[in-house]
Write the structure tokens for this entry.
Amino acid sequence: MFGFLRKKFDKTVIKSEIIIANIVVVVVKKDIKNLHLNVLPPDGRVRVSVPIRMDDDSVRLFIISKLQWIQKHVNKFREQPIDVPRRYITGESHYYKGEKYLLNIIEYDGKPHIAINNKKYIDFYVKQSAGLEQKKKIFSHWQREELIKELSIFFIKWQKIMGVTANECRIKQMKTKWGTCNIRARRIWINLELIKKPVYCLEYIVIHELAHLIEKNHNKKFVAIMDKFSPQWRSYKKELNNLLPSDN
């Protein structure tokens, strides 16, 4: 169906910094039409992307006009607890499709595998000799396979409904985005972390990225597309915005 690549493209950009109210804002000037303001996980870094011809005074005024919003979201990230590295031991909590599970390590000499047990436990069958990195690799592979299963269902469903076709869907770990779409290649990327979030959030991201194959910009037409195919998308977006991709 899809090949499940790493996206790289070269763009000429101009980067600088502006400090306002003790907040460092990274300003990225590039060949775009609209302004994009982001407060990024995990530490609340602030970045604004602006058209390359926009003068510095106009950029500063824009940032000042959004200062209250920026401060609110910067504080939200700074107040979040630091993510605890996974140790893959019995009793450790992990999220799967929006639900919290307890990991149950089971010593097993056969091929390692993972199974959901009674909607409460994640049974991890693995050799006693397996080290942390090996367990992490096995667990990540299982998450990827589970995400592929869900994505296959949603892409078949929504490509037919929306009348669009993506050439590829790929999965990777992303720090600041839940999904992204390469319009020219018709290639969609999905964040591996979405397997931890509620399934309806994953479906919303699929619809969102497919919508970019109809309209590349986040304009009124794009909003109308989202309203048509996912009337509750704003609440799903808000829910995901309150979760860091790295949250466990």
Confidence is low (pLDDT under 50) at residues 3-10. Residues 132-162 form the longest helix (31 residues).
